[in-house]
Amino acid sequence: MKETRAGKSVGRKATKEDIELVVARARRSMDEQLKGYREQSLKIHPWVCARCGREFTARNLHLLTVHHKDHNHENNPSDGSNWENLCIYCHENEHRRFLDHLAGEGITTTEKEGDAVTHKPFAALADLLNKGKK
C-alpha cells in the first residue's frame, strides 16, 4: 500500500495483512499506555481496593486494576488524581453502573404525559384505623 506524507493510503485497497498490522500496532500502543499508568498508580496509591477495602500483595496484585474516575482513558495526570485502584470485581461493577446510567438517560417514569394514577390502595385505611379505635 502506498502512503503519502500525511499517512493516508492511496492507490489500492488495504489487504487483510495491512489491517492486521494496524490492529497489532494499536494493541501494542494501548498495552504500553495501560502498563504505564497502572505502574504509576500502583506506586502512588496503596494496594487496596478503593471500594471494598480488599488488600493486595505481590502475589495477587494482578487482581487490582486502575479505574479512571471520569471514565476517560486519555486523562492520565501524573499525580494520579483521575485514578483509583479497584479490585476486578468492583471495577466491573463500576463500569456496569456507568453503562446502566448511560442507557437510562432520558427515561421517564410515566409512558405518556398526563397519565394519572386512578387506583388508591390506601383510600379506606383511615376508616379501618378509626374503627379499631372505637
Write the layout of secondary structure elements.
Elements: E1 2-3, E2 9-10, H1 16-44, E3 64-68, E4 83-87, H2 88-103, H3 125-133
Antiparallel strand pairs: 1-2, 3-4
Q: Kindly name the structural category.
A: alpha+beta
> What's the alpha carbon Rg, rounded to whole Å?
27 Å
- How far is it from the N-terminal to the C-terminal residue, by CA? 94 Å
**pLDDT < 50 runs, ≥5 residues:** none
- Count of spatially separate domains: 1
**Continuous helix count:** 3
| SS elements, strand count | 4
Helical content band: 40-55%
Cross-sheet strand order for the largest sheet: 1-2
H and E string? EEHEEHH
Q: Which word captures the global form? A: elongated
What is the mean predicted local confidence, pLDDT?
A: 82
Residue share in β-strands: 5-15%
Reported for the largest beta sheet, the result is: 2 strands, antiparallel
Descriptive account of the structure:
By secondary structure, the protein is of the alpha+beta class. The chain has one domain (2-106). Helix content is 40%, strand content 10%. The protein has three helices and four strands; from the N terminus they run E-E-H-E-E-H-H. It has helices spanning 16-44, 88-103, 125-133, and strands spanning 2-3, 9-10, 64-68, 83-87. The strands form two sheets. Strands 1-2 form a two-stranded antiparallel ribbon. It is elongated and about 90 Å long. It starts with a strand and ends with a helix. The model has no long low-confidence stretch (mean pLDDT 82).
